[in-house]
Design brief:
Layout: E1 2-7, H1 12-21, E2 27-32, H2 42-45, H3 62-67, E3 71-74, H4 81-90, E4 94-97, H5 107-114, E5 128-129, H6 132-140, E6 144-146, H7 150-163, E7 174-179, H8 194-197, E8 202-203, H9 212-223, E9 230-235, E10 242-249, H10 258-266, E11 273-275, E12 293-300, E13 305-312, H11 316-331
Helix pairs in contact: 1-11, 6-11, 7-9
């Protein structure tokens, strides 16, 4: 049994962490912080947790968090996370960070895309990128795990098996992704209010989204060379889910079923990756509230392209579920512990 603290536990990712960990058999949630709701019962803010969580939110006091935790999840805004994580690590605590502060290895690239100075660049090389399907061995011995973003998770898992092959033109990757509104966080920004979002779909941050360097870094490491990706995110009027369609030029058309066999071999032992058969598309309906990533593969012989589809729940496999998966690996628990439930449908 380990004691777990969550710093920043009143946003959507914090709430999802509480929901998942409340039924984890090897975890005691020991402290939850929220600057906005300090002193108030968690269930008074989130009635969905009534009967499951009998705790109050605490003020953010780093010493109190370290005194009451063996492992700490930081669900804090970008830039704020790196102001407290070095202290947690010096106290001997394991940290799983859900911000972007330790995902990108080059501090100059981080500073360019996140518009600020990185205050603990010495930790970037030791932070392990928390995509278990790629970095499971490194995660087991990590002190700091940088939990991936939702869009990168959907794109990287869809692309990983073919990045190490010579089947594709790696300069031709186009990723078109769509996210539910919860991906923007629990915010009062007018852009994400019902009347502005409902019955409309729009692209945003075209060619400048902060997840681009994260995607390019991961795919570049897999392929052994620099990779450029054309990435366009879209906001779609649903609560949860990320759906990505990725187009890549083929150097030559493979034999029927060959790509699917590559994917089956790559993901044969992965508990949370499911492959669609016969060129069928992934569907966000089938992964909602689950930690699964569903991937579809279709070769367009006419255009000599492969079209990949992937679907995840942005708050689970795209954030808090993957963080718990990383915790399970880090602590030597069964990897699917607390996560072994199907999605809900419809």
């Amino acid at each position: 049994m380990i004691k777990v603290g969550i710093a920043g536990a009143s946003g959507y990712t914090g709430l999802e962490l509480i929901r998942i960990l409340s039924r984890h058999p090897e975890v005691e949630v020991s402290i939850l912080t929220s600057e906005r709701y300090a002193g108030r019962p968690v269930s008074s803010i989130f009635p969905s947790l009534s009967g499951w969580v009998d705790m109050e939110y605490k003020n953010f006091l780093p010493d109190e968090i370290t005194d009451n935790s063996d492992l700490i999840f930081t669900a804090l805004p970008h830039k704020k996370a790196m102001s407290v994580i070095p202290g947690f690590l010096k106290s001997g605590k394991k940290v799983i960070d859900l911000s972007a502060d330790y995902r990108i290895k080059d501090p100059h690239i981080y500073e360019r895309w996140y518009s600020g100075i990185h205050t603990s660049p010495e930790l970037l090389n030791s932070a392990v990128y928390g995509l278990p399907e790629i970095y499971r061995i490194e995660i087991r011995s990590a002190s700091l795990v940088a939990n991936p973003g939702c869009y990168p998770t959907s794109v990287i898992l869809a692309m990983a098996p073919i990045m190490k092959t010579d089947l594709i033109d790696k300069d031709s990757i186009i990723a078109d992704s769509k996210s539910g509104i919860s991906g923007a966080g629990r915010t009062t920004d007018i852009t994400f209010q019902f009347a502005d979002c409902n019955e409309g779909v729009r692209a945003y941050n075209i060619a400048v989204h902060r997840h681009i360097p994260e995607i390019e870094q991961a795919l570049g490491i897999l392929s052994g060379e620099d990779v450029k990706v054309s990435f366009t995110p879209h906001l779609i009027p649903m609560t949860r889910g990320v759906f990505s369609t990725i187009y890549v030029n083929l150097r030559e058309a493979p034999k029927p079923g060959y790509l699917l066999e590559i994917y089956k071999e790559f993901y044969k032992d992965e508990p949370f990756v499911r492959l669609m058969e016969d060129g069928k598309s992934a569907d966000t309906h089938n992964v909602m509230t689950s930690n699964y990533c569903d991937i579809g593969i279709k070769v367009d012989e006419r255009t000599k392209r492969v079209v990949l589809t992937s679907a995840i729940d942005n708050l689970v496999k795209g954030a808090s579920g993957q963080a718990v998966q990383n915790m399970n690996i880090l602590c030597g628990f069964r990897e699917d512990m607390g996560l072994d439930t199907p999605g809900i449908f419809p």
